[in-house]
Amino acid sequence: MIINSEECRNIIGFERYHVSESGRVYRTEIGKKRSWRTKGRICINENKVHFRVQNGKLRQGQVSLTDTNGKLHNVGVATLVARVFGVIDKKMISNRQKISYKDYNKKNLHYTNLFITEKVYSNSKLNKKDIKHIKKYIKQGVSLRYISRIFCVSEMQINRIKTGENWGNGKRKIKAPKAPFEIKEVRMKKYIATFDRKKTVNGIRKRFTVKRNPKSPTDNLIIGIINGYKLSLKHTNITRAKKSVKTLNEYFFESKIKKEKNTLFNKKLS
Mean pLDDT over residues 75-99, rounded? Predict the structure, then answer.
């Protein structure tokens, strides 16, 4: 259909409307039953495109359309034009893609001005190439802290890439670790879950200590035996390792000794 000297095409899912090559949306109502006076005529009404400004930035133009069931939708006009005029081959754009404008003007909605690019998040310092290298390092067993220093991001960010939460499908590919035995305190439970564990004879208990490698100052190992498990965890910072050893011994050894002393004292009193 030609409207105002522009080619217009019908919008799939919104058959009452046509969109022009420059992004103007018209309600055409071709299939509507008409009286003898208006029979054969096409009623054309142009729908207004709204451009919203958010945080000082111009957002994508949107238009309100009703589908065949009479339900109202706010639809991005650039997406409509790109789909109808073949800029997008697929039915849907993936979550990592967006429609961009060649002249950087979001009000220029002509299909020749539109193209598809990958989304770049303002708080993200990584790109696809970086992610490929990070995943290779993770497979090789390189420490997350070392990888985070190479790419100048947090260790938590690298861990999320490892588990698949970031730069994945949004779901954890690696299940969250669980503590080998019951611990009431949530923080301690999560911390113990990160330890490597080996089963030992029940009843053997050994306080947590730090084993240092004299050749490499960042190669430290926290070791302890409790509840039938030998627990070990690599640590690069010796001061933090000593602090964690102190808290571990206070929680698993000193608190229990205090409890035993209190029970003995109470028995003597009784």
Answer: 75
Q: Could you tell me how many residues make up the chain?
A: 270
Per-residue burial over 91-124, b if 16 or more Cβ lie within 10 Å, else e, is: eeeeeeeebebeeeebeebbbebbeeeeeeeeee
Least confidently predicted of 20-34, 70-84, 162-176, 198-212 = 162-176
Classify domain 2-118 by CATH architecture.
Alpha-Beta Complex (3.90)
Distances, alpha carbon 141 to alpha carbons 17, 18, 136, 146, in Å: 56, 56, 9, 11
The answer to whether the beta carbons of residues 19 and 8 sit under 8 Å apart is yes
Note the pLDDT tens digit of each residue in 163-217: 877 776 555 555 667 888 988 888 899 899 999 999 998 888 999 999 988 888 8
Buried b (16+ CB within 10 A) or exposed e, 249-263: eebbbeeeeeeeeee
d(CA 205, CA 253): 9
Plot region of 37 (φ>0 → left; ψ -120 to 50 → alpha; else → beta): alpha
Its sign, for the CA torsion 19, 20, 22, 24, is: negative
Cα–Cα dist 170/95, whole Å: 11
pLDDT band at 86 (very low <50, low <70, confident <90, very high): confident
Alpha carbon distance 169, 178 (integer Å) = 23
Residue 11 φ/ψ, nearest 5 degrees = -95, 125
pLDDT tens-digit profile of 93-118? 555 677 888 888 889 999 898 888 77
